[in-house]
Design goal:
Distance between the termini: 75 Å
Structural class: alpha/beta
Number of strands: 20
Strand content: 15-25%
CATH class of the largest domain: Alpha Beta
Radius of gyration: 25 Å
CATH topology of the largest domain: Rossmann fold
């Protein structure tokens, strides 16, 4: 505040801060620089938590996962032009995955951009952001800051959540106005994400379809985890008696060890099910679009719960759509099921249980091996036990084989404890998500990283050490992308495109910034290092040495990589 004679003034800096705090947004993920450096300083002085990263993309991933975990928009703040562009990937990622996030970027004045006068970092950021997010706004006048931030918050969390861009030109931040008028211009968002109830007709239709099923299946997506309707979802699953298949970030809504979990029998239930109930899941590439070989040749009927009407019938016919928020839809189903509900035929549930038991038994020896150098299963078997013993830790996971195998073999026991690459399968989310999860929840974080995936955001280990966050990173180091054993077919000096430096010591990076680094060459040393890290809460990086020949092309999705049909002789 400033006193100009008898008039008390406020400015854009303080109006932005006051508008965010009024709406209970007190944590900012950012990279400082022109024109937002002082804004970050003022935010911290006003009691907000401002965490500075080494790259805007990682700050954006932290904000996005904060939105997923809290149902409030995570806020990432960047400088103009290059910084904005760095944050844009995370904004698009948030929109694709339905995470509420706001990207706030400083920018050049609109009139300068339009006239192309060569301003510092001149760019029409609003136009660039619009196609990649749910909504985009530019605020030009100080008196509009309150309404602009309110619109951004409501846009991010209402309906299907997503990313929102808020453009703040440098001149706006320094504008002044009467303090009383400024206070009156602020807007507290009321009921930002109102309930959307399904129609009674759609509920009755869905239950009729489910009741007719001989081989029903529930698929839980990360939308179900985001909804935080955990009790209702568990009650519906258990009352229905249906097997359920959790997508990776929905694991733990019910414990993966639950008797109705069909995770280890995924192939069987997708092929054999005749009615599939989708709760917060989409029939995108992760579920083969609801058709093709993985779904078998038996006819299927789909029931889908989604808040976005346009999602219905996106790939296959949905015979019983329920449009509304997940909590309301599941509650309506439960209420209409009555006290007695017929359980699925026992031949179906027993077939699923039998397949589960066989697959779990087949996998057990792989997870218990003590090979040196380690393979993926031996190393992940150790981490699987640690997660079982510490169900409150948050698991962040990315990579190719490191991701694909881990999500299959590491059981989760509580909701929103598994965070990973999401719908795009994008690499580089690891450190940002680990930091965001640690900051928002206060829980210890275990980040299981492929060495390639870690490379996208590895410099953020300095950020982890700077804020002394309880994060243990395990880098599965096999010396390359998929494998470290590929060779240059020409015999030239350059290594193969997928090969990294041999015997790299990622643990030394953490030591360089004051954290704990451990080189683990066996399952026993890996278990000891991770347990010590989680007990101590100290920033730790464990370099887990994996056999360079371990790993397969693109994990389990190598079929998405086009193959050449031309043979050069």
């Amino acid at each position: 505040m400033a006193d100009a004679g008898t008039e008390i003034l406020t400015d854009g800096f303080h109006l932005i801060i006051d508008a965010l705090k009024l709406n209970d947004i007190t944590t900012i993920y950012n990279v400082p620089g022109i024109p937002i450096t002082d804004l970050g300083r003022y935010m911290q002085a006003e009691g907000m938590r401002v965490l500075s990263f080494r790259h805007e993309q990682n700050a954006g991933y932290a904000a996005a996962i904060a939105g997923f975990l809290t149902k409030k928009p995570g806020v990432c703040m960047t400088v103009s032009a290059p910084g904005f562009l760095n944050g844009l990937t995370a904004l698009a990622h948030a929109t694709t995955n339905c995470f509420p996030m706001i990207l706030i970027s400083g920018s050049s004045e609109r009139e300068i951009v339009d006239l192309q006068q060569g301003d510092y970092e001149e760019m029409d950021q609003l136009a660039i952001a619009k196609p990649l997010c749910k909504a985009a706004y530019r605020v030009l006048c100080a008196e509009d800051i309150g309404i602009g931030i309110a619109r951004a918050i409501r846009s991010a969390v209402s309906g299907r959540p997503g990313g929102v861009y808020l453009d703040l030109p440098a001149k706006l931040i320094g504008q002044t106005m009467d303090a009383d008028a400024g206070e009156k211009s602020l807007v507290k968002v009321i009921d930002a994400a109102p309930r959307q109830l399904p129609s009674p007709e759609s509920v009755a239709r869905a239950l009729d379809v489910i009741k007719s099923a001989e081989r029903p299946l529930i698929i839980l997506g990360k939308g179900a985890a985001y909804a935080q309707a955990d009790d209702e979802i568990r009650a519906f699953v258990e009352k229905s008696g249906m097997p359920y298949l959790p997508m990776s970030m929905a694991k733990g809504l019910l414990p993966d060890t639950h008797s109705q979990s069909a995770g280890p029998a995924r192939s069987l239930v997708l092929k054999e099910a005749d009615v599939v109930v989708m709760i917060g899941a989409r029939l995108n590439w992760l579920l083969s679009h609801g058709k093709g070989k993985s779904w078998g040749d038996k006819p299927k009927k789909f029931v889908q719960i989604d808040i976005e009407p346009k999602e219905i019938d996106s790939n296959v016919q949905i015979v019983a759509p329920l449009v509304g928020d997940i909590g309301s839809c599941v509650s309506a189903l439960l209420k209409s099921m009555g006290d007695k509900w017929p359980t699925p035929p026992t031949d179906w549930t027993e077939a699923v249980s039998s397949k589960k038991e066989a697959n779990v038994k087949r996998m057990a020896p792989k997870l218990q091996n003590n090979n040196i150098p380690m393979d993926y299963h031996g190393a992940l078997g150790v981490l699987r036990t640690i997660v079982k013993e510490r169900p409150d830790i948050i698991l962040v996971n990315e990579g190719a084989n490191t991701l694909d195998i881990a999500r299959s073999v590491i059981d989760m026991y509580k909701p929103r404890k598994r965070l990973d690459v999401g719908t795009w399968g994008v690499m580089g989310i690891g450190m940002g998500q680990a930091i965001g999860a640690a900051v928002e929840t206060g829980c210890p974080v275990l980040a299981i990283e492929g060495d390639s995936a870690f490379g996208f955001s590895g410099m953020e280990v300095e950020t982890i050490c700077r804020y002394n966050l309880p994060i243990c990173i395990v880098v599965f180091n096999n010396g390359g992308i998929y494998r470290g054993s590929d060779v240059n077919p020409t015999g030239g000096l350059d290594v193969a495109p997928t090969v990294f430096v041999k015997d790299a010591r990622y643990d030394k990076m953490m030591e360089a910034f004051g954290g704990v680094g451990v080189n683990a060459i066996s399952p026993d040393t890996l278990a000891r290092a991770v347990n010590e890290a989680l007990d101590s809460g100290k920033p730790t990086l464990v370099n887990a040495v994996i056999d360079e020949k371990a790993g397969t092309e693109s994990g389990r999705i190598g079929n998405l990589n086009p193959q050449s049909v031309i043979s050069k002789k």
